[in-house]
Amino acid sequence: MKLYDATLAIHEKMGVYPGDPPFTAEPVSRIQTGDDFNLTRICLGTHLGTHVDPPAHFIPDGATVEQIALETLVGPGVVEDLRGCSQIDRHALEKASVADYKRVLMKTDNGPLLLESPFHQDYVHLTEDGAHYLVESGVCLVGIDYLSIEHHENPGSPVHHILLQAGILVVEGVNLLDIPPGEYEIFCLPLKIKGADGAPTRVILRG
Questions:
Q1: Using 50, 70 and 90 to split pLDDT, how confident is the model at 97?
Q2: What is the residue-wise DSSP string for the chain?
Q3: What is the pLDDT of residues 39-81, one digit of tens each?
């Protein structure tokens, strides 16, 4: 068994989705300046880096981060190789046989872009018919290797609504660049922030 970390490291120069607050870290106390210990104040958005979108992100009165079932966050799944696709539609997902899995992480051509700080608007994304296919297939968690699963500035954010209304947890910013496609046990553990519409998460794969 081998463990893979599919999580972006959080730092002040990392890329963020347009309009989201950047990460900042401010020293509160430092040993080198005479304090007894080191302590840092951090500021970050709920959708920073590798993060989860629970239903509350788009659905009024939807489940918030601390209400996500552990059975959704941990279990068998697949890193599906979808490189070469300009968008992830029903046809691409049918060809990839993702219907055999409850948890699907989509490895696309976004990989190198995710590590760059400028935001790229032309990233590979999931289409509406692709989202409907995931719902029909009984998927409970879907992740992608960029900061949004949906086409940039898609009016009404229909892909998010389709997935979240069906109770499918969305994981964005998953770093799959150096992770081989295949079956894994997936651990996706977001910060347990009460009432939150999203949270940074640590994604670990064991396979």
A1: confident
A2: --EEE--PPP-TT----TTSPPPEEEEEE-GGGT-SS-EEEEE--TT-SSEEE-GGGTSTT---GGGS-HHHHEEEEEEEE-TT-SSB-HHHHHHHTGGG-SEEEEE-TTHHHHTSSS--TT---B-HHHHHHHHHTT-SEEEESSS-SS-TT-TT-HHHHHHHHTTPEEEES---TTS-SEEEEEEEEE---TT-S-EEEEEEEE-
A3: 999 999 999 999 999 999 999 999 999 999 999 999 999 999 9
Among the listed residues 57, 125, 151, 160, the single catalytic one is 57
Count of domains forming the chain:
1
User: Exposed, middle or buried by CB within 10 Å (0-12, 13-18, 19+), for 81?
Assistant: middle
115's tokens: 């590590």
Both ends of the chain: CA-CA distance in Å?
5
Told to judge if 120 belongs to the known catalytic residues of this protein, a careful annotator would answer no
Q: Give the domain CATH number at 17.
A: 3.50.30.50
- Compute the distance between CA of residue 174 and CA of residue 41 in angstroms, rounded to an integer: 25
* Distance in angstroms (rounded) separating the CA atoms of residues 139 and 136: 8
Strands 39-43 and 141-144: unpaired
- Please count the residues of the chain: 207
Please name the residue that has the structure tokens 């941990």.
74
Q: Is the dihedral of CA 64, 70, 72, 74 positive or negative?
A: positive
Domain that holds residue 41: 3-206
